[in-house]
Every structure is written in structure tokens, then in C-alpha cells.
Amino acid sequence: MATLALPSLDVIARYEPVIGLEVHVQLATRTKIFCGCPTSFGAPPNTNVCPVCLGLPGALPVLSRQAVEMAIQAALALNCRINPFSRLSRKNYFYPDLPKGYQISQYDQPLANDGFVEISLDGGARKIGVTRVHIEDDAGKSLHDGFQDSDRYTYVDLNRCGTPLIEIVSEPDMRGSDEAYAYLTVLKQVLQFVEVSTCDMEKGHLRCDANVSVRAKGAEKFGTKAEVKNLNSFRFLKLALDYEIARQVAVVESGGKVAQETRLYNADLGETIGMRSKEHAHDYRYFPEPDLVPIRVSERWLDEIRSRMPELPSAKRKRFVETYGVRDYDAQVLTLTRPLADYFEAAANASSDPKSVANWVMGDLLGALKAQGKEITDSPIPPERLGELVSLIAQGELSGKLAKEIFPKMLETGESARAIMDREGLRQISDSGALEQIIGEVLAANSRQVEQYKSGKTAVLGFLVGQVMKATRGQASPGLVNQLLKEKLG
Fold it and tell me: In terms of residue numbers, what domain contains 356?
């Protein structure tokens, strides 16, 4: 088949893409949603299974309370309305790795509706609607081996069967791949903050399907959509959307019609490829799950779950700016993950200079941890000790230069800054008498620079300060050195 010639950017710009995402998130429960099998990743194939998740005749499912509570937490974090009554349904279809021959999901009565996610792009904020959040169980996994037809095998691992998922369906509110990327980024961050999922895409804990259509700019009617399935990285999401938008524009521009179909993204070719015609709801023959009662969420239960909800990233960013005086950008960085936000806050509360703490966390600490391949949770420096280091600088007991010398020692040993200062004699010199003697020696040794200063070349003062700092191994108080030098030279 000839490769489709994609249109120019000018032609694509005449069209408006319309994008909605369906995001599948594996909940961080200890066991599967309808049985007691573990959800641990990496077990030998077909070992985390039982008659329920294998779909054996006569095995009856029992709904996990933990899975429902995590699904409710996720929906609350996405500003959804929790429905007091929802129902589980059978969604019938055949996959080799779906031993029951159906998936237990939710159809017309989902757990939650009518939420939103707020994204920021190009300095502006806008809301992307969340249509619904519903519960379902996952299928297994097919592993394909070999390339030649004569030597090609497919193996089935059913460990993943029955792991609890939520599906988060957005409104078709996104108008480009950048917006879809931003939406998925915020979604992942929020779900990790409330600790309902690790959202580890490499382990399949977060997977995304995209519904894409194009229409002429200014048109109200949506075009025919195609679904791009199983996008398992942020990069592939953006690349797949950009290609699919261009492909659909090319079809429309050539006088053709976009087919309603399911497509896959081929990362090697950088193209989306047709997989099958798009199913409709009636194709799945939904009907209420006869082995499970409906889910009823009382106000008391909902209030109990709501009381356990942590502060969400947007609220935390606002509070960091107001309470600690950090910049908006800094607050964005410091709330990328919940452990990072918690570390900064603990360090800031242990310091007299929270803004400087933010700089140390984002710069020195994260840089050193990244170089060592570590996360903030692996930091050998407890947050209170980083806060103490910054306070010692603010109080004049340490110079910035000395602090930079002490910090690597703290990383290596985990000791406090004060303990290292005392052991190695790295305390800042703030004794005027001691400094005056050293300054006198520096001035005597640099008579030419002294004469230059007195003749009006005051910039030479920086050189003389540097000589004093060198003579004191960086332990002199820079402010006091400046003051004493000006007095002597005056």
C-alpha cells in the first residue's frame, strides 16, 4: 500500500482537531477486584490466578471494597459527582486473554459523572470535562513471539486478569496534541497524589485510547472519529495524535471520507494503522451483571472517604505561593509529586528562609539525586537537616560558599550541617578583630590595587574581597569583609 502523502502545516491549520481520551488506570489495591489474588507485577506467568479470575464455571465474584473506595477517591480528585447508585454490567467480547468471554464493567449507570481537569497551556488555563469514571476488571496479556508465520507463537499470561481498573472518559474538549498531553500529565499527577495508582506506564498501570476527528475551522458539526488504541507513553500519545490529525486532513482534502475505525500507532513507522471497524455499544451486548449487587454509596461513606483525601496539587501550589513566598513556577516544580511537595514543606518549616529552601531543593538536592539515580524518597539528607543548613546561612553562621562545601558531605554521610561544621572547623568567621588583622595583611600585599581603589577605581574592591575570602578559606562573613575593607580603605 502506498504511504499516504500528508498535507502541509498550512493546510492542517485550516482544520480543527477534536480529541477525547479514554484513560485506563490500574488501582493500587493489594488484591484483584473480584477475588483475593495478588496484583503484584512481575510474578511468573499464570501464577496469580484462581477460579474466579480464570472464569471457571461456578466461581462467583465478590467486589473489593478497597477498589470501590479508591475509585471514589479518584473521581473526587477529578471533581466528579459520585452517584449514590451504580451498577456493574457484563461487556461481552472475545479476546484470547479474556477467559470469561466478557468483561465486568459499568455501562449506563457508572460510579461518577460530570467532572473536570484544569490544564495550563501557553500561560492560560482551561477546563477539560470528564464525562464519567467507571470501574471494571482488566483482561490478561498476549505475548507474541517470532516474526515468520511458520515460527510465530502467541503466549497468554492471565496474571493481569481481574486487576481493578477505572476508566476515565473525557469530553471531546481537546483541540490539539499539546492539550491532550497536558490533560494526561495533570491526570497522572492527581491520581498519584491521592495514591490510588502508581500510573507506571511501563507496567501498564496507565493506558490511553484517543478518539480523534477533524473539522473545518469555524464548523460546529464534529467530523467522523477514529480511535487510536493502546497509547502507552506520553511521547507516543503526542506523535500518534499529530499523525492521525494530519492523516484525516489528507483524507478530507482529497475528497474522501474518514472511516469510523479502531487504529493502532506503529512507533517504528511513526504512523497509525487500521486495525478493525469501530464497535458500537450494542455490539458488546451489555446487560446487568447477575452475580453482583449494585453499588450504593451512602452520604456517610462518601464523607468518610472525602475526609481522608489529601490536599490536591492545585491547592498545594496556591498555598506554597501564599505561605512560603515561592514563585508560581517554583510551586509548579515543587508539587510535581506528593513526596517532593512533602519534602519541601518539611524543610521549609524547619528553616527561617523558605524561598532559599525551594532553591536548594530544586537545584542542589534534585540535581545531586538525579546524578545518583535516586528519587526524593531516597534522599540521605532528611528535610529538617536541609532546612537547618539554609537557616545557618540566613543567620550568618555559614557563608554560601561554605554551605556548598558542607552540602556534599551531608549527602555522603547524612550528618547535620552543624555536626560537620564543628568537626571540620568550617564555621564562618564573624569576629571583627580577627578579620581586621587578615584584611591588613591582604591590603599590605596588594598595594597597587589599594592605590587603584583610592584613585576612584572602586570595582577593584571585589578583587580585594576575594583575596580575604581566599585567605580565610571562604570562612569569612562576606558582608563584614566588605564593611571592614571600605572602612580601612576610606
Answer: 311-424
